[in-house]
Write a structure and sequence with these properties.
By secondary structure, the protein is of the alpha/beta class. The chain is built from ten helices and twelve strands.
Length: 303
């Protein structure tokens, strides 16, 4: 069992490379809360979310004050029970939406709660109707698919509640012979789309380039899923540290900082030993000048 003992919370603000707005909102900046978990075995995991310009500080406070303390001591392998517990404690949903129109489909034409309007629209046009970025429950997708109110599902892993519910929606869409083209978060969605038969597209928005070392690999128009362990995101922690506008940490009682990965923390640990402290407190040794002592003596006698 690997228990969570350390939760680090940061926020990085990333301006959009291309201005995006619609009739009801404007994408001013991507506030990017990042969470790093550390277990008592030294294993680490990283996750992130986003807003489109407001509310980031509230997300950081929610994580640090209410959610992170509930993670301490939990078994890191119990992913689904932890997700359900945190969701029950907050009843929170992600914020923000990005809307675009492409010739391949008509995206988010009406408010997500207007199921009847989507049914009438889908029956009156041959243009595929895409929905999903503003839907947060498997049951909501089921209602749309049963009523033939959409022909493309744009389920967002950050808004539906994680990988498990995302996969449930993707397989549900497959059972209705409806394509999955997920919304945003291409770094996470490229691996998910590669794992399900109904997924055909990945939305290309390179919003994390400023805080990652490698980007999404695209060859001949196809996005390739990373082969690295985990979610495949190669975080640039020096860039994150430099750009962090918020930083909070919650630790289990008695825990000390593990430091950043690399040589420096190891060097600090090696130097912080009883022997090292004893040696550092002594005066420099010089060759003894006392003729009565054996040749080569290196006691603390001054020459």
């Amino acid at each position: 069992m690997r228990r969570i003992v350390d939760v680090e919370i940061l926020q990085v603000d990333l301006p959009p490379k291309v201005p995006r707005s619609d009739a009801i909102q404007s994408f001013v900046t991507q506030e990017t809360p990042i969470v790093r978990l550390t277990t008592d075995h030294g294993a680490r995991g990283t996750g992130y979310s986003y807003t489109i310009g407001t509310g980031g500080s509230s997300v950081v406070a929610l994580l640090a004050d209410h959610l992170a303390p509930r993670l301490l001591g939990r078994d890191a392998d119990e992913i689904e029970p932890i997700r359900k517990d945190l969701f029950f404690r907050t009843h929170a949903t992600a914020v923000g939406a990005i809307t675009s129109i492409a010739l391949a489909w008509f995206e988010e034409p009406l408010p997500a709660e207007d199921l009847g309007g989507h049914v009438r629209l889908a029956r009156s046009t041959s243009l595929p109707i895409a929905v999903g970025e503003s839907m947060y429950a498997l049951q909501h997708f089921r209602e749309y698919l049963q009523r033939e109110a959409c022909s493309i599902v744009q389920v967002d892993v950050g808004r539906i509640g994680g990988i498990t519910p995302w996969l449930k929606v993707a397989y549900l869409a497959e059972s209705f012979n409806v394509a999955v083209c997920p919304h945003f978060l291409m770094e996470l969605h490229v691996s998910l789309t590669a794992a399900v038969p109904a997924a055909r597209w990945v939305e290309y928005i390179p919003q994390l380039d400023g805080v990652t070392r490698t980007g999404l690999r695209i060859e001949e128009g196809y996005a390739h899923a990373p082969e690295a362990p985990g979610n495949g995101i190669d975080w640039d922690w020096m860039a994150i540290d430099a750009r962090a506008v918020a930083r909070r940490r919650v630790r289990a009682p008695g825990r000390v900082s593990a430091g950043r990965a690399g040589a420096a923390p190891v060097a600090r640990r090696l130097l912080d030993t009883p022997l090292a402290r004893s040696l550092s407190s002594r005066s420099p040794r010089r060759r003894c000048a006392d003729p009565s002592r054996p040749s080569g003596c290196r006691c603390t006698g001054r020459s």
